[in-house]
Amino acid sequence: MNRFKPYVPLLEKALQSLDAWRSSFGDVPGFQGPPEEDLANVLLELGKKLEGNYPFHHPSYAGQMLKPPHPAAWLAYALTMTINPNNHALDGGPPTSAMEKEVIGKLAAMAGYNSGYLGHLTSAGTIANLEALFVAREVHPGKAIAATSNAHYTHRRMSKVLNTSFLEIPVDERGRPDFNFIKKNIMEIGTIVVTMGTTGLGYVEPLSQILQLAEENSVRVHVDAAYGGFFKLISSDLPHQREWDEMGRADSIVIDPHKHGLQPYGCGSVLYKDAAVGKFFKHDSPYTYFTSDDLHLGEISLECSRAGAAAAALWATLEILPLDENGLGGILKKARSAAVKFAHLIEESSVYRLYNEPDLDIAGYFKIPKQEKISEINHLSEELFRKGVSDKKEGFHVSLFKIPAEEFCRKFPEFERDTDYAVILRSVLMKEEHEGFVEELVRRLEKKAKVKGEK
Question: CA 358, 361, 385: angle at the middle one, nearest 5?
Fold first, then answer.
């Protein structure tokens, strides 16, 4: 199976057209490309090295948040990279800057920002969150940034970078934040981070309740929807629709197109409800911003150089898969369906026990041990993780997830807490191909879980 072969002639045709534009400026004196034979050898060697990757393209891979980009994305990226525009200033890439503004408008509308907003693409979600927290610090200097213990670890780290205090909000066994803790510390908090799709188990945190509390106390709310943001397209099919409906009330939002937006790494985005925050990015550059009085994206960003190819790739993808229920939403529906089906099969299994009903498309589970000890769960999880990776034909790629033992035992009090952490299995069912593969995946999981001699 060669899933890319049909698209190679399309890229060649587009390159020929772009080469005609290049030639219109005249010959380049002294230009000489690398010898074709040398380049061919290097590419073949590279291809062999890339075979050392795990099968991110295959539905047997359900380990991390990894999947290949859409053909429109990698074709557009490859085509645009032959020019290598820089979206920092319009001088560096007028067409790709226009494309970036266009796709940001679409992302903003999806999130619930219809006018008066500001936003741009970033090199990744980490940088997007750093920018949002930078604005949070500037709006409320001296105030803390607060996020739950399920939030991405970079919020704490970025708070250190910004020399801003950080408060970790405890959660219960279902991932819900401790509101008593928030209320007790509310006078110290300037911004609360609400995660819409935690990177651990995909929890959607109670945005609506936090918004109400924040608005009553003049606290900013930043939504980290790096993983879950595109699920807004199918919110009517999700268990927490109200939270998605309230997204447009948040002060800032981060969404990663390089996750469910089918984009290559790296492509993140940050959106601000009030364009006035652009004043915090104001700076003077003596050699850029001269070709146009229009907004240059570098004027509203902490980053300088950014690949215009990322904007072109996202623009091309959204031309094929618009941001609606039937476009990109259709792929998310399949991922969601796969996760629901997978959770049901795990619940029905006599071998495994489900840890969480998926809010999105991530499920946690563990093999039922003979002795009800957390250490036994940990041993079995690590053994199954290794067994799955080592079998190319009948194997699988899942991941491990650590949960504080106290939190685990609140949910499963029958287990002896004989170690600090419970280590469970975690499956990220984010590929549309997972929908037709989950029965096979569970069959493989059950087969590997059985000891020799069991039927």
Answer: 90
Query: What's the average model confidence in pLDDT over 169-177?
Result: 91
In whole angstroms, give the CA distance from residue 71 to residue 369. Answer: 43
What element of type H or E holds 363? strand 362-367
Tokens of 39: 């380049």
How far is 65 from 62, CA to CA, in rounded Å? 8
Q: What is the CA radius of gyration of the chain?
A: 24
Count CA atoms closer than 13 A to 410's CA, side-chain side: 9
Q: What is the 3-state secondary structure (H, E, C) of 156-174?
A: HHHHHHCCCCEEEECECCC
Cα gap 306→88, rounded to integer Å: 6
Could you tell me the pTM of the whole model?
A: 0.95
Does the pLDDT of residue 203 top 70, yes or no? yes
**Burial code of 45-60, b = ≥16 C-beta within 10 A, e = fewer?**
eeeeeeeeeeeeeebb
β-pairing, 362-367 vs 220-225, is: unpaired
As to burial, measured by CB atoms within 10 angstroms (0-12 exposed, 13-18 middle, 19+ buried), residue 187 is exposed
Closest Cα partner for 100 from 360, 303, 247? 303
CA torsion 120-156-147-186 (nearest 10°) is -110
CA distance 28 to 261: 38
* pLDDT given for residue 451 in this prediction: 59
Contacts of 231 (CB under 8 A, 6+ apart): 196, 197, 238, 244, 260, 332, 336, 360
> 222 in helix, strand or coil?
strand
pLDDT in tens, 331-352: 999 999 999 999 999 999 999 9
Which of 277, 13, 43 minimizes the C-alpha distance to 140? 277
Residue with tokens 């589970």: 365
Q: Look at the block and give the residue holding tokens 């563990």.
A: 366
Which residues sit opposite 366 in a β-bridge? 353
The C-alpha atoms of residue 304 and residue 91 are separated, in whole angstroms, by 13
Within 8 A by CB and 6+ apart from 110, the residues are 229, 230, 232, 233, 323
d(CA 376, CA 354): 16
The separation between CA 415 and the C-alpha centre of its own chain, rounded to angstroms, equals 33
Average pLDDT, the chain: 94
> For residue 137, what is the enclosing H or E element?
helix 125-139
